[in-house]
Design brief:
Order of helices and strands: EEHEH
Strand order of the largest sheet: 2-1-3
Distance between the termini: 16 Å
Radius of gyration: 15 Å
Shape: elongated
Structural class: alpha+beta
Strand content: 15-25%
C-alpha cells in the first residue's frame, strides 16, 4: 500500500490504517499530507516472504514521472 505521511511524521498505510474518507477530511482541515516510499527493510521482508512461497517473483517499479504519488 501507498505510505501516507501526515505533517511529515505520522504514517498511514493507504486502505489499511486510513480510508479515503478520512484522508479527504484531513485535506479539508488543511493537514499537510504527502506520500513516501516503502522502506528498504520492509521491501526486503516482503520479498523474502514471497520467494519462500513462490518460484518466481516479478517486481515492476515505476518512475516518479509516471507515479500519481506526490510530495
Amino acid at each position: 500500500p501507498l505510505l501516507i505521511l501526515e505533517n511529515g511524521s505520522k504514517t498511514y498505510r493507504d486502505g489499511i490504517d486510513i480510508e479515503f474518507n478520512e484522508l479527504v477530511k484531513k485535506f479539508d482541515q488543511k493537514v499537510k499530507i504527502s506520500t513516501a516510499q516503502e522502506s528498504l527493510g520492509n521491501l526486503e521482508e516482503k520479498f523474502q516472504n514471497l520467494i519462500r512461497d513462490y518460484d518466481l517473483v516479478f517486481y515492476l517499479p515505476i518512475s516518479k514521472a509516471l507515479s500519481g504519488a506526490f510530495n
